[in-house]
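Let us practice reading a record.
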Amino acid sequence: MTYSADDAMTIAAARQLRNGAVCFVGIGLPSTAANLARRTHAPDLVLVYESGTLGSKPDRLPLSIGDGELAETADSVVSVPEVFNYWLQPGRIDVGFLSGAQIDRFANINSTVIGSYASPRVRLPGAGGAPEIAASCGEVIVLLRHNRRAFVERVDFVSSVGFGTGPGSRERWGLRGRGPQVVVTDLAVLRPDPHTCELTLTALQPGATVEAVLEATGWDLAVADEVDVVPPPSTEELAVLRQLQATLEAVDSDRGSAA
């Protein structure tokens, strides 16, 4: 089966999720990756959405955090304040999925503005619950398409803290979680160096090269001594991903017909 760079990125991210983990999920590629993991190698993955649905088992990809499919298939539905105050902030969520418009060498994420905050060139959708996810989840997985617009020397605005200005920042600010432990892109997999906290190239997506990753990164990206190659998507993973994508396309088509 043929696959796109986004397919490879989504599948590589799904593989990062372990069975039985509690995962705080965002809409878009993170939701696709989490639902793919639950339908393949992690059937007991617990999906938590910002709207207050705990243990959702959607039969299709949700259109938003307010999609009724999430509530109908959840083990429990609680208020948004309870999701954050009881589940997230005390450290009861194992892993969070985040994305954004920019990320820098210390895995700080920007989803607020491009340019200055007072007079931005582009105003983005905003961080939503991402700052709390970045602060309090046990660890964070970031999904982002790899190019120089996204991978910048310094983000224009820190919406969600990764490792701040380097070692000791998270501890100094009293952040509970370990921060971003893996960044999955359409070209590579990056992980923070245990000493410097700087993102380091550790693996390449099938067909990508070290030179291509360096060219797509807006800073002098560190490269591990040994760079692995991510195993290509399996037939099973692609088949399940196609099923999930088809359910979303069907819902979009139905909405278009109704309009």
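A brief commentary: The chain has eight helices and 14 strands.
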